[in-house]
Amino acid sequence: MTVEVRVPTLGESVTEATVATWFKKPGDAVAVDEMLCELETDKVTVEVPSPAAGVMGDIIAAEGETVGVDALLATLNAGDGAPAAPAPKADAAPAAAPAAAGSAATVDVMVPTLGESVTEATVATWFKAVGDTVEADEMLCELETDKVSVEVPAPSAGVLSAIIANEGDTVAAGGKLAEMSSGAGAVAAAPAATPAPAAAAPAGGKDVENAPSANKLMAEKGVTPASVTGTGKDGRIMKEDVLNALNKPAAAPAPAAAPAAPRPAEDAAREERVKMTKLRQTIARRLKESQNTAAMLTTYNEVDMTEVMALRKEYKDLFEKKHGVRLGFMSFFTKACVHALKEVPEVNAEIDGTDVVYKNYVNMGVAAGTPQGLVVPVIKDADSMSFAEIEKAISEKGKRARDGKLSMAEMQGGTFTISNGGVYGSLMSSPILNPPQSGILGMHKIQDRPMAINGQVVIRPMMYLALSYDHRIVDGKGAVTFLVRVKEALEDPRRLLMDL
Q: Which stretches does the entry tag as region Disordered (predicted)?
């Protein structure tokens, strides 16, 4: 029986998509709900599952073609007789194994789905070398995208027989990373492949193996591992380390040629050139795009933190005892922003072409600094969460951000962002918008300052607040009103309870 595979509903206002990647080809056996292909729209990436078990028939829409909703993508041969096609391969394998003791099945290691709107990654680190024996689900390598790091597990137990994409190579989603040998002959094949990694063993007597690309470059340039300082995991020598070692000797003779007049080469010998990570490149690109695209403006106010600090001090022990998480300031600010966004919805909106898209929900982005760079995990539906739920979400996502374990889904869909520069001691700053959002609130250091209250000068814990906003959609009145509502809610937290 022939089953048609069609383009699914792509979402509100989305009428067409581009076929990005086919995971199956004609003749391949497929199971129900197994991914057949991936479609890419101007907003999201959509995976198309198999509607039935069977064998792939014809592919109607090739990679790169644009298709509309419900368009025919491919045909599938399903039914009682459909799975019979791949059966001979499965039956033949056990029969052939005893006859050829060295036979082994080749398994491809592919780039996994990288997430919405992410089409490529850089191979950061190979944890295994050619000839290594690996277990199923053991980590083979780590990929670095412009948003997160992705670990690639072994699809089966066996021996890593070939590395197709070396460290530093850029690979596309669904691309081939390596080949593995699995089956009866896989372990036997391992010794034949081990001499290449063995050459890296003398590198300072370390147990870790250097990057294959580094070994190749050292062999070509006649560089000894002992003369190179490894900056990779556990002291692993990377290709960049070899390049740095090669560059330093070349710069050193320059001062000797002109000892009386120091030259720029002297400074070069003391400098270190490191390629920007994908994440850092994306941060730079997106921040500059934000400045070039949005009509960005910042307005300021200040808030007396006396009442929030008193409330937190009074209830923090009971709060932690009941909810198992500390009561911080972020939940107060999140609640205050949610309250203000209801009154000034344009701050929670975005521009899409010539349309303004108003969000009737709040997905709160919370900017977090990590060793790899700035990331913004998103707390979905923050407007319907309690103080405890907000604090738990912030704590959990903050830890995952520091550990580099955030998924793509956890950093997408934000409608408004809070950035707390105060944790680093910042007294005042102008935060940059996180496109396509139209507003970002900057928190700062709480500092005691003399304030005039009821004709008296008193010392109060004050914080400057900064709201950067897109003036194309948010007027000055709306921006100032938003900040004033945040200020009022924090200076009298009871207003949050009464929705005032």
A: 250-271
Active-site residue, from 339, 471, 492, 499: 471
> Is 477 in a helix, a strand, or coil?
helix
- Candidates 241, 475, 492, 499; catalytic one: 475
Look up the CATH number of domain 1-85. Answer: 2.40.50.100
**Cβ atoms of 301 and 487 closer than 8 Å:** yes
Q: Is 60 exposed, middle or buried (0-12, 13-18, 19+ CB in 10 A)?
A: middle
Q: Contact, 337 vs 484, CB < 8 A?
A: no
What's the predicted TM-score (pTM) here?
0.50
The CATH architecture annotation of domain 280-498 reads: 2-Layer Sandwich (3.30)
Could you tell me which CATH number the domain at 199-269 has?
4.10.320.10
For the segment 379-405, what is each residue's pLDDT rounded down to a tens digit?
999 999 999 999 999 988 888 888 777
Tell me the fold of 104-196: OB fold (Dihydrolipoamide Acetyltransferase, E2P) (2.40.50)
Give the residue from 473, 470, 467, 471 showing the smallest Cα distance to 485: 467
CA distance 180 to 137: 13
Over the stretch 194-232, which tens digit does the pLDDT of each residue have?
A: 333 433 444 444 456 676 567 767 777 777 887 788 776
8 A C-beta contact, residue 414 and residue 433: no
